[in-house]
Every structure is written in C-alpha cells, then in structure tokens.
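Q: Give me the 3D complex with MU-OXO-diiron.
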Amino acid sequence: MQRYWVPQLKPGIHFVGSRDWDRRMFDALVPLPEGTSYNSYLLVGEDAVALVDTVNPGFEGELLAKLETILGDRNVDYVIMNHAEPDHAGGIPAVLERYPGAEVLATRRGIEMAQTYFGVEPEGSRVVTDGDTVELGGKTLRFIEAPMLHWPETMFTYVEEDATLLTCDFFGSHTAAGLYADEDEDLIPRTKRYFGEIMMPYRRMADRALGKIADLDLDLVGPSHGPVYRDIGQILDHYRSWARGETGNKVLIAYVSMWGATRAMAHQMAQSLGDRGVDVNLYDILTTDTGDLARDLVDARAIVLCAPTVLSGMHPVGTGAANLVRALRPPAKYAAVLSSHGWSGGAMKQVEEVLGSTDLEMVGYIDVKGPATPDVLEQVDSLAADLAERLQD
Ligand code: FEO
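A: Here is the predicted complex, encoded as structure tokens.
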C-alpha cells in the first residue's frame, strides 16, 4: 500500500492532490511531456471542513486516504467545485460516497454540470455567486466567478484570513514534479505553454479575472495543475501581458514538406527574418509537440504557415496547424503562407478558407510549381522584408 505525504501549505490548508507521472496526453490534444498534477486543497476550519476541487478519475483512493490521514473521523462539510472538468471534479462521486453529508458548492452552471456529469443530487448542492461567503470557523471562503477559465462555470475560491486564492486551471501548468513555484526553474515557459493551450482563446476573460483579483491580498495562490505560488509576483506580470495579447517582434514559422521545396522556403523565411533582427521560432509540424506551438503563439506577432498541395488541397498536417491557429485564437496580427505543388495548386484556397475566419491580416503568399529555385528564394526574402517591416507597426 502506497504511503502518502500530505503537505500543509498554511495552518489548516492541506495539499491533498495527486501527481500523474504517466499521463502523456490531455483532452486528446495537449501533450504532457512531464505528466501533470490534479491539485486538491483541504481547508480545515474550527467548525467545518471544505475540500476545494478533487482529482482525476483513478486517483480517488489516494485522495480519500489523504483526507482520512488529516481528518480521522471528522467529516467533509463542503465540496467546492471551482471547475467541472473531470480532472478536477471526477473524484466528487467517491468523496460524496465517503462523506454523504457534504454539500457541493459551485456556480449556477457548475451545479448543472455536477448534476449531469457526476450525479450530484439537487438537495446536496448549492449555487454560489460572486461575493458569496461560507464560514468554516477562522476561515472565510469567498467565491469569485471567473467564467471561461476554462469552461463557462469556472470560479475561484478565496480564503480571506489566509490571503489564499485557489484558481483551478488559472495560473496552472502541466507537470507532476515539485510543490512550490519558486523552486521551479522552468516555471515561466511551462506556464506560458499551458496558457497557450488552455487560456489563450479566452484571454479577454483572463484579463477580466486578473482585474477582479487585482486588489486581493495574495499570500498563496494554488492552481489545480502544477506548483503552488508563495509569490504570485513571479507570474503575474507575465499573465497580464499574455492576457492582454501583447506580442513581440516575433514570428512563428510552421512547416510541413514532402520533397523539400516547402522546407527550403520555410528555412529561407527564417534566415531572412532572423537576419533582419526578428525573433524566429521555426517548427517542422510533423514532429513538433503541439504545446510548443501553443506556447510560441502566445506572443508571436506573425505566423508563417508553410505547406504543399497534396491531392488537390493543403497537406492535412498544414491544414491541422491552420485549424489549431483558428481554435487557439492567438493575438498575432499578420500571416503569410508559403506553398509548393507538383502540377496543380489547391493549398492556398484551402488555407484562405481556414484563416479567413480569423483576424489575421495576410501580408503575402507564395505558391511555386516545382522546386524552390534561387528565384523563388529571392521572392521569399522579399516577402520576409515586407513582413519584418510590418512587425514594426
Ligand atoms: Fe484542468 Fe479545464 O481542467
């Protein structure tokens, strides 16, 4: 039987979450090279006990063992569901089975989801709204609605006496390792990657949520993935910048190539931009981790998509990248497309259909028949010059 260490983050605030070292994919979309954690927090007051978020299905036994270690015969009075996605709420049925008197608290949409997904009974649940409080005895919990971070029902829980904010996905990062953010050397790139994957499409809501918590005293911030912040200043300015969609003199180039022509054009673009002082990230999307793309989309000012025509349309890997851009809604202002074909084009029409629904302004495109000749590479260099100039706008 596994033995568990249950860290106490502050008096009466215990980390009872789980580390999932083996998981390699999230939502069948987001790669997890370092696994992830499902952070759950137990708040023990003088009069009552609250559990904030639970764990992914499969980790319920670990959670219950940790609760019993801390509580002994004492009950859980409240299960606070900041977010209904199963990586945080999937353990609710097991917790309610063990502590049948516990009341589930969530936003209105959260309670609907708890009933639909987790079989929570109406009489065992209660809607809380912005500013509502619950007293545990020496711990006053205040709820802050923060929708779309990352589903419509999301909220934060603030423990007033402890200046502790529990934010579920917000401020999160995917890693199974570590406990405190100030001990994590890779905190910023990892958190940026998570922001790109999960928060970027909703960055206006993220900016609004940052405004709502701006005046809070924040001594401890606990997301439900990755390390806990003892100093939120470590990440706050980055989060503000990402949420506002601030971009740099930076271009993300994503390419897929069949016989080398598109690859040569992509590399010429990278060379020409780099030589003009532009920060470039170039990826062969066939072998690239989607999370790396998401991370670099957070602050890239332009995107260059490079993919050939195959079977009368854009190469499906290129189409997938275009669809990812459309879905993640990065703040980039400009786009360019490089393509090649053997005997008939088709890629350009297809990519225009996908990117046409975004706010990206197309600076230019080049579609060549056959190899990337010196003339073609000169055209690419010329397009790079235009793009580098536009980046200064
Ligand atoms: Fe970590 Fe949106 O769940």
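A quick observation: The pocket of MU-OXO-diiron is lined by residues 83, 85, 87-88, 150, 169, 224-225 (CB under 6 Å).
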